[in-house]
Each structure stands twice: as structure tokens, then as C-alpha cells.
Q: What sequence folds into this?
């Protein structure tokens, strides 16, 4: 299980790798005779890899921000669901004497208001639910939306259900249901590009063939072979740290 500290360290670690890669390039620029056969290690390719790596980190940050905004909007929309469901039951109980209908409605409301599994959180955003759409938190939102839809359908089947309160009217409940569905769908839609950028980041930084950390290791090996293990050139870059993060 990934802890909050591990996740936070990982976020910082990706950026640290990219920053350290720039430091590595700057040193290589000062080395006379730096002329590797491997094209990936040439100064031009190193600069391209750094630019590519920095760009993907910015895309991850931007997509993550949009996803967090979508999560916040959904949470705000769902905040009134439980209390609204209680008002519906109270209104329904005053409209009909049919105990079976009231019992069916109460069963649905209990499902809407049932205690969901404790949401996983995104450690970089205090109080946020997890960013994975397959989490218990996501399934809870899906289920609550579905249960509320079932409740609205039940009310529509009752000709006597016509409360005077605007927020309890069928049209208002229909509108609210659409809002729940829209915000729930939006979270999933915003997760898709974020997830894709995460995969791209991991490939650009950590691919075993041409990832940033792989290239950094090869550069160190080349400098070591070119100037020697005890050379001042190798000593300058040997301590530059690169780690693999998921």
C-alpha cells in the first residue's frame, strides 16, 4: 500500500530528476572531448530529453488540477443529496398513506444515505478523494446517483406526488439528478487525460531503453570511460542523484 509520504515524495522526485538532468547537461557542456557515439547521449539529444521531460511534468500538473476541480464540484453537488432525500420521504409520508410505497422509498433513501466506504485520498490535496475512478469513493458516487434515479422514477409513478415546495417537485428533482450525473461523468472525463499523461511521464522518465534516468546513467558511464573513475569530470557528476518513481 502506497502511503501519503511515499506519494508526496514521488511527486517531488519526478521534478528533482528533471532538474538534476539539467545539471548533468550543464556539466557535460563544459567537458572538452565530450563526443559520445551513442546518439542518445549527445548534447542535442540531452537537451531534447530535458525539454520533453519538463513538458510532460507540466501537462501532468495541468491535467491533475482540472481533475481536482471536477472532484470538488462533484462533492459540492452531492452535499445536499442526503438532506434532500430526507425531505422527499417526509413529503411523501404526508401525501400518501400507502405504507408499501413509503417503505420502498425509505429503502432507496437508506441506500442513498448509507455510509460509503472511507474514500481514499490524494495525498497532495488534503481532504481530496482518490483520483482513481475505480476507487470505493467513485463506486459510491455511481451507486448514490443510481439510487437517486430510482427514487425519482418511483415518485414519477405516483400521481398524488405533487408537493408545493419547488425543490421537491419532479422537475426540480429531474434537474438535480442531471447535475449529479453530469458532475459524476465529468470526474471520469477529466481523469482520462490525467491518467494518460501519467503513463507518458513514466515512459519519458523511466523507460529502460531511453528514459531520462536510463540516459543519465549512460552519460555517467560514458564520462567515466572517457576521463576515468577518479577524474574531476566524473567526480562532478557521479553524485548527481536519479531515482525511479512510479
A:
Amino acid at each position: 500500500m502506497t502511503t501519503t509520504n511515499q506519494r508526496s515524495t514521488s511527486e517531488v522526485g519526478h521534478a528533482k530528476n528533471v532538474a538534476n538532468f539539467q545539471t548533468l547537461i550543464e556539466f557535460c557542456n563544459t567537458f572538452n572531448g565530450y563526443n559520445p557515439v551513442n546518439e542518445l547521449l549527445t548534447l542535442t539529444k540531452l537537451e531534447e530529453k530535458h525539454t520533453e521531460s519538463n513538458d510532460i511534468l507540466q501537462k501532468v500538473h495541468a491535467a491533475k488540477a482540472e481533475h481536482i476541480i471536477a472532484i470538488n464540484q462533484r462533492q459540492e453537488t452531492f452535499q445536499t443529496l442526503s438532506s434532500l432525500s430526507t425531505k422527499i420521504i417526509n413529503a411523501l409520508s404526508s401525501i400518501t398513506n400507502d405504507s408499501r410505497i413509503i417503505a420502498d422509498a425509505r429503502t432507496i433513501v437508506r441506500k442513498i444515505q448509507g455510509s460509503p466506504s472511507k474514500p481514499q485520498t490524494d495525498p497532495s490535496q488534503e481532504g481530496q478523494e482518490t483520483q482513481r475512478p475505480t476507487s470505493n469513493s467513485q463506486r459510491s458516487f455511481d451507486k448514490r446517483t443510481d439510487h437517486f434515479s430510482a427514487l425519482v422514477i418511483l415518485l414519477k409513478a405516483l400521481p398524488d406526488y405533487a408537493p408545493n415546495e419547488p425543490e421537491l417537485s419532479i422537475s426540480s428533482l429531474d434537474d438535480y439528478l442531471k447535475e449529479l450525473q453530469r458532475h459524476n461523468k465529468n470526474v471520469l472525463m477529466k481523469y482520462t487525460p490525467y491518467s494518460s499523461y501519467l503513463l507518458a511521464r513514466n515512459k519519458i522518465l523511466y523507460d529502460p531503453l531511453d528514459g531520462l534516468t536510463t540516459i543519465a546513467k549512460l552519460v555517467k558511464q560514458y564520462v567515466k570511460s572517457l576521463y576515468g573513475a577518479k577524474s574531476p569530470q566524473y567526480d562532478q557528476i557521479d553524485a548527481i542523484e536519479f531515482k525511479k518513481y512510479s
The mean pLDDT is 90. The chain is about 70% helix and 0% strand. Residues 111 and 147 are 7 Å apart (CA to CA).
